[in-house]
Specification:
Strand content: 15-25%
Protein name: Phosphoesterase
InterPro entries: Calcineurin-like_PHP, Metallo-depent_PP-like, TAT_signal
Distance between the termini: 45 Å
Strand order of the largest sheet: 2-1-6-7-8-9-11-10
Domain Calcineurin-like phosphoesterase: 56-312
Oligomer: single chain
Organism: Paeniglutamicibacter terrestris
Number of domains: 1
Helix content: 10-25%
Radius of gyration: 20 Å
CATH topology: Purple Acid Phosphatase, chain A, domain 2
Largest sheet: 8 strands, mixed
Order of helices and strands: EEEHEHEHEEHEHHHEEEEE
Structural class: alpha/beta
Pfam family, one: Metallophos
CATH architecture: 4-Layer Sandwich
Length: 392
């Protein structure tokens, strides 16, 4: 039986950037480490708080997915978006790196390349894990998600919370404090949507299914309990949720149906759900329907759930009161549209908040590299050398 205590179960929350370890975990603490980078101090300067004007922006980057010599245009895109939008928080929503690194150092270099745009600008950030972030373990790097999490938490402006016993390695709740107090005015949920389905369940393999992983029941239990505890402590806090692999409902919304997938149904769905953006590939969901969407409906505090994974899908819409959508693929390293238009959908998604507005969350939009003067040549343009790791 789950506790009815008002303390947040298992995983700590960050409220206004202060480590609020309601479950006994000091979420802002940094572990000792023998390798760079090492955080200089607890990131008090990285707190999440609405600006004096009551506004706050979140930027979602997705699928930066590259090796130790990241395509330089990925960084150019990230830097241009950050400089134009000046967000209060950034999420890299899964597949932060690919499987090309051949050593722990190369894993760290690949990650460091894509977090430096935020670190150098002192912008708070966090990541979720995707299906490719552990791929380098096949090369003997031994850089599991848990080890990657330990590494990224040493950065000054990283807000990922500490590993615990909930399934996955990047489940976190972050709260954004009001400009007028420390009371949370909005929230951010990060979930680890896993990697791949196991070889078999119940003696049956996954042949014929999209054999990606799915958000597990214990993660949903954690969300429901933490959401309830937050409501008891602060009142209901509207939030956005980020995870890498889309839900089945992302597919259902596009077609307006569960068991047919045709353009006539889609045309009706566009009107019904207010869909904007494009779908250029299948919705590559987990093998099983996790039930997360039903839990979000039950709790009623998540305004939108956004994923990545499918690099060339950019759509979003309102599915029975909850926005479901994609952030565009950000990285110039992995697959794109193809041909001369290979990089035409590289981009980011921006979310706007205003605590003076009735619903705080006021909308979302996409930004594309092609509109920022970035080179769209299909050929790779890797860094000459990985960016230097911060020194102790």
């Amino acid at each position: 039986m789950k506790s009815t205590s008002t303390s947040v179960p298992r995983r700590g929350i960050l409220l206004g950037g202060t480590a609020a370890a309601l479950s006994g975990i000091l979420a802002g603490a940094r572990p000792a480490a023998a390798s760079v980078p090492l955080a200089k101090a607890s990131p008090a300067s990285a707190k999440l708080k609405f600006g004096a004007n009551g506004k706050f922006k979140i930027v979602q980057f997705n699928d930066t997915q590259d090796g130790p010599r990241t395509d330089r245009r990925t960084l150019e895109l990230m830097e241009a978006v950050l400089d134009a939008e000046k967000p209060g928080f950034v999420v890299i929503n899964g597949d932060v790196i690919d499987g090309s690194p051949n050593s722990p150092l190369e894993v760290k270099q690949a990650i460091n390349n894509v977090v430096q745009p935020m670190e150098s600008r002192k912008i708070p950030w966090a990541l979720t894990f995707g299906n490719h972030d552990e791929d380098s373990t096949s090369h003997g790097t031994k850089m599991t998600e848990a080890k990657i999490l330990d590494f990224v938490r040493r950065y000054d402006y990283n807000l990922n919370t500490k590993e615990d016993d909930v399934y996955g390695s990047s489940n976190s709740q972050l709260l954004i404090a009001s400009a007028r107090s420390n009371k949370p005015a909005f929230g951010i949920w990060l979930l680890d949507s896993g990697r791949y389905a196991p070889d078999s369940v119940g003696g049956q393999d996954f042949e014929g299914l999209m054999s990606y992983d799915w958000i597990r029941p214990e993660q949903i239990d954690w969300y429901r309990e933490a959401s309830g505890a937050t409501e008891r402590r602060h009142g209901k806090v509207d939030s956005l949720m980020f995870f890498h692999i889309p839900l089945w409902e992302h597919h259902h919304m596009w077609f307006g149906s569960q068991f047919t997938s045709n353009e006539a149904d889609h045309a009706k769905a566009v009107k019904k759900h207010g869909i904007v953006g494009v779908k250029n590939e299948e919705v590559y969901v987990g093998a099983f329907n996790s039930g997360l969407f039903a839990a979000l409906q039950e709790r009623g505090d998540v305004r939108g759930a956004y994923c990545g994974h499918d690099h060339i899908n950019t759509y979003m819409g309102n599915y029975f009161g909850i926005e479901l959508g994609y952030g565009p693929g950000t990285g110039f390293g992995p697959y794109g549209v193809g041909g001369a238009q290979e990089h035409s959908l590289r981009g980011a998604r921006v979310f706007e908040l205003d605590e003076h507005a009735k619903n705080v969350y006021t909308g979302t939009r996409t930004i594309f590299a092609k509109d920022l003067g970035i080179n769209m040549d299909p050929a790779r343009k890797p860094l000459d050398q990985p960016l230097p790791l911060p020194q102790d």
